[in-house]
Amino acid sequence: MIDVVIYSVFILALIAFSLSPAIYVTNRLSNKFVFIENNSTKISILFAILFSSIATFFIFWF
After folding, report:
1. Whose CA is closest to 11, among 51, 62, 40, 42?
2. CA 16 – CA 54 distance, rounded (Å)
3. Residue 10, exposed/middle/buried by CB under 10 A (0-12, 13-18, 19+)?
4. What is the C-alpha to C-alpha distance for residues 10 and 39, in angstroms, rounded to an integer?
5. What residue segments make up the domains of the chain, in order of their start?
6. How far is residue 20's CA from residue 1's CA, in Å, rounded to a whole number?
7. What is the Cα–Cα distance from 22 to 43, expressed in whole angstroms?
8. Distance (Å, rounded) from C-alpha 21 to C-alpha 38?
9. CA distance 12 to 30
């Protein structure tokens, strides 16, 4: 049970640190697609979760 709590806190920290690159990617894509421009906040959060999940996977894998 404590492992789940540690893992969750680690994921939340990585989401906070990956929010800046996610916003950058979303801003770059919003210049090309109207849908991304209209939903930029939601897509930035999804990118941040994606980046942090990938980072967590590689950190725990190696």
Report:
1. 51
2. 14
3. middle
4. 27
5. 2-61
6. 31
7. 8
8. 19
9. 25
For the chain (length 62 residues), average pLDDT per consecutive 10?
81 79 83 84 83 79 74
What is the predicted pLDDT for the residue at 44?
Answer: 85
Indicate the burial class of 32 (C-beta count within 10 angstroms; 0-12, 13-18, 19 or more).
exposed
Cβ neighbors of 24 (< 8 A, separation 6 or more) are: none
Q: Within the chain, how many helices (H) and strands (E) appear? A: 4, 0
Structure-token match 């906070």, residue found: 16
Q: Which residue has the tokens 């939903």?
A: 39
